[in-house]
Design brief:
Blueprint: H1 15-20, H2 37-45, E1 48-55, E2 60-65, E3 70-74, E4 82-88, E5 91-95, H3 98-105, E6 114-116, E7 124-131, E8 144-147, H4 155-162, H5 170-182, H6 186-189, E9 197-205, E10 212-215, E11 224-229, E12 233-239, E13 259-265
Antiparallel strand pairs: 1-13, 2-12, 3-11, 3-13, 4-5, 4-9, 4-12, 6-7, 7-11, 8-9, 9-10
The structure holds zinc ion.
């Protein structure tokens, strides 16, 4: 917040000096293991399509993506935001950790950034290998594309703010899709749904109040983002009821389009030199 609330404490003598201190990057990424993007590019060029899943508007679907395969997410019919969850296919409790990914790579992801998994695993689940919206950069409002800020639209916040019940928020869509995949029902699936990568969504924080904002995605029919699966994954994708998220979400008002998930598998030889990452090396004794 740039303006302190009235009646708050007066600025101390060191206020000017304190504000002038230069920031330090919390987690310099120079010490992270770097992805071999040249290898991924060669592998992608040799890959063949092995599967696809259409995600209808205001619904979600799950699709497995094996380690070494590529997941391409596109909006073939028009501007549409997608909310993406990733799980370890063999252990759904290991899942995408949006907050730590944000701390490591920043508020929005593009080529070369990884999607990290939850504790105690903390390893790359996927690497962004292609992004047709990389040209967008940062607009004059501070908006960027593909954020790891927003959590996912959900019926609880909607009820809190409006008193209404709506059943096609991304949280509920992902819950139904995962329940359908596991066959274990919504009660078991819901706790496994987690904070998302907001595919195609254009967001930022307002300069004056620091509030989370959204604006219509610059995505057009045919735009895409591609991920390389570092381990065996189950991907869950919701076509957000906000459509292009230019006005509102959590309702049936916005025009929505389907999303398309496609899986591409390279020949094994094209991945020579790449290894699926092991789980985090911390010994988990926590000083005990
Ligand atoms: Zn949503």
């Amino acid at each position: 917040m740039s303006t302190p609330p009235s009646g708050g404490p007066a600025a101390p003598d060191h206020a000017k000096a304190a504000r002038a201190v230069a920031p330090v990057i919390c987690y310099p990424t120079s010490t992270l293991p770097q992805p071999d993007l040249a290898l991924y590019t060669r592998a992608r060029a040799a890959a063949r399509k092995t599967g696809e899943e259409q995600v209808p508007p205001r619904e979600a679907r799950c699709i497995p993506v094996r380690a070494g395969q590529f997941l391409r997410i596109s909006c073939p019919e028009g501007a549409q935001v997608g909310d993406l969850n990733l799980w370890n296919l063999a252990n759904l409790s290991e899942r995408f950790y949006s907050g730590k990914t944000r701390a490591l790579h920043g508020t929005h992801l593009s080529v070369g950034d990884r999607m990290w998994s939850s504790f105690p695993h903390l390893r790359p689940l996927a690497t962004v290998t292609a992004d047709s919206l990389a040209w967008y950069g940062t607009d004059s409002f501070g908006g960027r594309v593909h954020d790891v800020i927003g959590t996912r639209c959900d019926p609880y916040t909607h009820h809190l703010l409006s008193g209404q019940d709506y059943h096609h928020c991304c949280h509920s869509n992902l819950t139904r899709a995962l329940a359908d995949w596991t066959g274990q029902g919504a009660e078991a699936a819901e706790p496994l749904v987690h904070d998302v990568l907001n595919v195609f969504m254009c967001t930022g924080f307002t300069a004056d109040t620091g509030q989370y904002f959204m604006k219509a995605t610059p995505a057009r029919a045919g735009d895409y983002i591609e991920l390389f699966a570092e381990i065996d994954l189950l991907a869950g994708l919701s076509a957000c009821p906000g459509g292009d998220c230019g006005a509102e979400h959590s309702s049936d008002v916005a025009q929505c389009h389907p999303l398309l998930c496609e899986v591409f598998a390279p020949p094994a030889a094209a991945l020579e030199g790449w290894q699926s990452p092991p789980v985090n090396g911390y010994d988990r004794s926590h000083g005990l």
